[in-house]
Amino acid sequence: MDRKRAKQIASSPVMANVCYNGVNVYIESVSETSDTASVHRLNQPRSTQVVPLGSLIEQ
Predict the structure, then answer these.
(1) In sequence order, which ranges of the chain are alpha helices (DSSP H)?
(2) Is 25 helix (H, G, I), strand (E, B) or coil?
(3) Mean pLDDT on 22-43
(4) Which distant-in-sequence residues (6+ apart) come within 8 Å of 11 by Cβ?
(5) Which end of the chain is more exposed for a tag (fewer CB within 10 A), N or C?
């Protein structure tokens, strides 16, 4: 996923269907300096991880 689209999803009030390694995730924020995003699994909102944007897939 490119940075522009990830930022759109992160700032949108509408939930997008985004997967990381086959698991649905919520994009919390997108880095301005690297191609990464902070995400959490939908069923684990307190477990945030930083992942490469290239590994996020919008379905």
Answers:
(1) 3-11
(2) strand
(3) 96
(4) none
(5) C
